[in-house]
């Protein structure tokens, strides 16, 4: 399971075991198939290839099976562990067991590990070749990041297979880390671990083994942040952790940090940490998140809260409030995945619908958009607008590519998509909380004794009808279903069996409605959320979106691509209030999605020169043109062209 809170003292809910649930059809089933049949095998080839990623080759050199220097990224080890998680999920789901090669990978990792438990290939190879590279010499070498993903992968592997081969490696590495941190306490010399995956990883080790020393080490590693000298907002360590009240700095580092602290709060009681988490969460939700769920708007910037002149450069970062550019939107895929992990962990300690609303929005929009529909090409950053030509160079490609030099995002995406089914439900003693909606089948076993199969039938996210049916009731028990009403819902209904409908209104949005069944036998619940096309506007301080709207339907954000109009540029489009939309099926790269067809105004500006910075506006006319919009996640699968989410709006004259 994505995180095991079954014995966590302060967790209110827990996940279903992975083997208890499967996507049966629809968007998520299609996504799971692409992940299993395309993403994971392709990533395997990338990691195995000496001439591409060099990751497995690095482990071979460490194990004494090959010679050479370290190549590839410094965080390649951690990315390999992330991919192993995805490989674990899809293999067990498809075959019920792991291939022999999985054990061979574990054996290789074990042989690469040093006698004292240390395991990070760049530094091990540096020591072997005496090239001057040393352990823990540079915080940006991501050694502890690599450790953290090892801990998480090993915990998952043990829980899903009962095999402790990788867990032994992880425990040995954790003991090395413990010695390192104990020495830091004595010496007072503390470094922040960038992208601190080890907070979550150590707590998973504790949950998996039951050994308190790993929880103690997680607490110590988080507490040590407050002892960092000359910290920066980029690493969120300029001020003490409990003083944080705004989301700042590197977005991946921030989201991993707060995910780890939320994990800790499921194990220990600390009201100050919980208060801090709420403040930082609200800062993100109210000021700095994109409509798609993307976060971390800037590639490079200056911290808006630290010293503007002394070492306060920020990278891949949250900027000022409402600083949300579209063309240069960074939104690194790992940051958006980190947001899902953070939201889920917040939900475990405080099961409120608002957290799963963020999870669903982020997963369906920006996370799915990060990979092509065939599962072979990736975005590192996720823009909200693409033009045909830029007068400047972006750091990353404007199109998805098979191999990204900084290869952290593809395996991270593969593992979260492979685990996506576990976001469908969480459970408590006698309650089932609805998470991400989608057609699935789940074996439910609750603490109150209830034992049955729950069937969810729906075409969500394209349609708001959701049918729940209880089958194979082995043990009946009074059970409460927490029906999540998404934030966008204004009208709907819930019907239990043949009883009268319960109306759902906008007052229920972003909340749970409790439906209790005294008996599960032949039980049904029919949920209906009205899903009209709607116009969304921004806060006026989001300057790039002034007098523009985004088109949404249900949880999906829609966009326009060049190939869905006959215009030279999307810049000439204006949408009118009250535009009619027609839903039409559209096949893109062998995947069927639901497009929206409508008409918009096309501007014709006499004598307009698109290359001038400023000019006098002359005669302008408009005419109606046909336009098609597609879900944002499906864009960049039909060739290069423009793309826009935000569209200028022509307002009606009052009266």
TrEMBL record:
The Non-reducing end beta-L-arabinofuranosidase-like GH127 C-terminal domain, residue ranges: 533-648
InterPro entries in UniProt: 6-hairpin_glycosidase_sf, 6hp_glycosidase-like_sf, Beta-AFase-like, Beta-AFase-like_GH127_C, Beta-AFase-like_GH127_cat, Beta-AFase-like_GH127_middle
Which residue windows are transmembrane per the record?
none
Indicate the segments annotated as coiled coil, or none if absent.
none
- Superkingdom, taxonomy of origin: Bacteria
GO BP: carbohydrate metabolic process
Q: Where is the Non-reducing end beta-L-arabinofuranosidase-like GH127 catalytic domain?
A: 21-420
Annotated Non-reducing end beta-L-arabinofuranosidase-like GH127 middle domain residues: 432-531
- The name of this protein is Glycoside hydrolase family 127 protein
